[in-house]
């Protein structure tokens, strides 16, 4: 199979982990006789420094032309601590999502058995947890009108959803629920927010089209609590942009670390595959970032954009094998397990490549 992949490392550890992700893609291409070609483009802080824009036109054009995008992360402390900055790295990410029509963000929360002890949650609560989040990605308070008024002393952001935006993500979630345990949980704040009441109304209206799927509704505050109390009660979860952002960072603790969670952003055009984590300034340049989220994003890319199921499974098996052999990056190491072999980013990548090349 011939495919063209755009690698967009972005900022901080984004560059460190996508380097490994790209090596994994190439190892798969070699093993299975595919021909993958690659190009790179700028986004985020590095793009602002080079061009003044967080998403240069050239990057967007390359994204639109690619068969898939492997993305790193954006962000820089300079902007995090300067709320007045007008041009910000995160604008590049949001514009990319909007321009490419990436309205569905799939965030699988898969706990590898070997990491049962890496989480701060008790193993008996965690064992068997397997959740697939559908986070809506191009609407909500992220894209609603916002403004400073009252001479800058008051600010507002608008939480806004249209029926069609809710319907298309909810249908995707129902379809996925059909292929899993036929349970769908929709998360909103319909006891307070009008946009959530619309959300719930749409879910209720669509549900009869999927009579084989059991639907439950949870308020976001209760969902956040239940996720930690009893993660196994969830299977497919569908929610809005902001609630999905927060819940999935929380859910990363079910999988052991932010460094384990991959995601796929799909919709109207080229799919973008990226870890859910950010540029992690605190560990940038130290060579300790966990590359497994990027590697697992490669598995999603192979399966979803290219339909290469066997190849995707091999990447997951490689991660499993490395974990079974006791290899850990710092974030998933357990201080009570002296047999853990702690590796840096590249060395963990090498373990995965070794498995794929064997
Ligand atoms: N998709 C994205 O590009 C994205 C996502 C989240 C945050 N951000 C941006 O990243 C910057 C930092 O944000 P933050 O600190 O809130 O979130 P973060 O996800 O970058 O980091 C949160 C914590 O998780 C750890 N962590 C994250 N990824 C890791 C990995 N692969 N291996 C080991 N540890 C890992 C970090 O060291 C940090 O302690 C901000 O500028 C933010 O806007 C970008
Ligand atoms: C960096 C930020 C804009 C982004 C989001 O909030 O969507 C990030 O947290 C994510 O989860 O991809
Ligand atoms: Mg986030």
UniProtKB/TrEMBL annotation:
Substrate binds at residues 97, 107, 135, 221. It comes from the Bacteria. One of its GO terms (molecular function) is NAD binding. The keyword Oxidoreductase applies. Keywords: Amino-acid biosynthesis, Branched-chain amino acid biosynthesis, Cytoplasm, Leucine biosynthesis, Magnesium, Manganese, Metal-binding, NAD, Oxidoreductase. InterPro entries: IsoCit/isopropylmalate_DH_CS (IPR019818), IsoPropMal-DH-like_dom (IPR024084), Isopropylmalate_DH (IPR004429). Residues 4-352 form the Isopropylmalate dehydrogenase-like domain. Mg(2+) binds at residues 221, 245, 249. One of its GO terms (biological process) is L-leucine biosynthetic process. Its EC number is 1.1.1.85. One of its GO terms (cellular component) is cytosol. It is found in: Cytoplasm. Pathway: Amino-acid biosynthesis; L-leucine biosynthesis; L-leucine from 3-methyl-2-oxobutanoate: step 3/4. Its main location: cytoplasm. NCBIfam families: leuB. Belongs to the isocitrate and isopropylmalate dehydrogenases family. LeuB type 1 subfamily. Catalyzes the oxidation of 3-carboxy-2-hydroxy-4-methylpentanoate (3-isopropylmalate) to 3-carboxy-4-methyl-2-oxopentanoate. The product decarboxylates to 4-methyl-2 oxopentanoate. Homodimer. This is 3-isopropylmalate dehydrogenase.
């Amino acid at each position: 199979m011939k495919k063209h992949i755009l690698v967009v490392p972005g900022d901080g550890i984004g560059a460190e982990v996508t380097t490994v992700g790209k090596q994994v893609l190439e190892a798969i291409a070699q093993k299975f006789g595919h021909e993958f070609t690659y190009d790179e483009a700028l986004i985020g802080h590095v793009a602002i420094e080079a061009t003044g824009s967080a998403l240069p036109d050239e990057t967007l054009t390359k994204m639109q032309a690619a068969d898939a995008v492997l993305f790193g992360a954006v962000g820089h402390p300079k902007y995090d601590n300067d709320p007045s900055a007008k041009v910000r790295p995160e604008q590049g990410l949001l514009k990319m999502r909007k321009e490419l029509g990436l309205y569905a963000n799939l965030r699988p929360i898969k706990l590898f058995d070997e990491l049962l002890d890496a989480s701060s949650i008790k193993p008996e609560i965690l064992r068997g947890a397997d959740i697939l989040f559908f986070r809506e990605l191009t609407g909500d308070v992220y894209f609603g009108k916002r403004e400073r008024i009252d001479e800058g002393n008051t600010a507002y952001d608008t939480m806004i959803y249209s029926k069609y935006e809710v319907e298309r993500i909810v249908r995707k979630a129902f379809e996925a629920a059909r292929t899993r345990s036929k349970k769908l949980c929709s998360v909103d704040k319909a006891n307070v927010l009008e946009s959530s009441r619309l959300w719930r109304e749409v879910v209720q209206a669509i549900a009869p089209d999927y009579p084989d799927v059991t639907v439950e509704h949870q308020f976001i505050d209760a969902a956040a609590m239940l996720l930690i109390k009893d993660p196994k009660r969830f299977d497919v979860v569908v929610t809005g942009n902001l609630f999905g952002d927060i819940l999935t960072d929380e859910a990363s603790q079910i999988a052991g670390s932010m460094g384990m969670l991959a995601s796929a952003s799909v919709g109207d055009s080229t799919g973008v595959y990226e870890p859910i984590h950010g540029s992690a300034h605190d560990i940038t340049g130290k060579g300790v970032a966990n590359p497994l989220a990027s590697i697992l994003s490669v598995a999603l890319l192979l399966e979803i954009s290219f339909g290469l199921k066997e190849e995707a499974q091999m990447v997951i098996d490689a991660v499993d094998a490395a974990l079974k052999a006791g290899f850990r990056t710092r974030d998933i190491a357990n201080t009570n397990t002296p047999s853990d072999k702690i590796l840096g980013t590249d060395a963990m990548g090498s373990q995965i490549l070794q498995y794929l090349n064997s």
